[in-house]
Amino acid sequence: MRKSVKKLFTAVSAGVMALALTVTAVPATVGATNVSKAGKKAAKQEFDASGNTVYHAYFGLQQKESWIFRDEWYAEENGLNGNGLPEGQKFEGTVFQSGDNGVEPIAGAVVTDVEIKGNGVYTVGVQGLGGVLTEAESSKQAVMSMLYVDTDIPVKAKDKITITDWKLVIDGNSQTLPADVFYCEESEDESGLLRFDPFNDYQKEKGTYPDCPSIRTPNDSVEITFTVGGFDIDNPDAVEATPEPAADDSSSSSSSSDSGSESSGGLSGGAVAAIVVVVVVVIAAIAIALKRKND
Question: Nearest 5 degrees, angle CA 200-CA 204-CA 209?
């Protein structure tokens, strides 16, 4: 009887330890996120539309099974100044992976966050993923679960501030998004801070984001662009990048055609006309000379 109890106790203990390891290996965005003191403080602030207060927008992502992620800035464990980050490792500019060895940065991946200083067009994202997400999709059947933007703007500002014209670009290819921006109210209720998600598979499964698009797994880069309104001032630096003008094919074709004619030894219409005139004049002169001689 004692041996049976001992075996049962050992099995239960092993199961509890395994569960604990599994929980610690999963980033906070899967379940409830412990909000940091800085996050709670930001949520309590009144929204300042004057432009004197600098707000921030942060890029976030998560892939299930590989647990490659970037939590919200206010996540107590893996966010800005998180207590679960490796010693000396910064949240800024970094994508992480959680595994048996704890949380480690993804080498080469560089995240771009932005400061919001007024109305304008802003872009957050990541570059240099180097195929880590697509490789995990192939080897571990990993699935993208979230691509989002979290901010330090209090949710109470929603009646003043607007987010419009959002765009999602993966590896240089635009992904179709619904016209209306999806605000992740589950996270907003949790943090008190504004957040919107171009892609959130969790919320799609729950039915709260039925228009969530299907996306390709990013191989190297993600960009989320959006327009902010509601401030008293515009940010002159927050403008969408102007695409480079396309080359004028008609002028180049004309130039190529002209140069081609010259290189092939052909004569232009004007040159031919001049030659014809000269020939006519010569013939007329010869005819006149012959008539005088005969006379």
Answer: 85
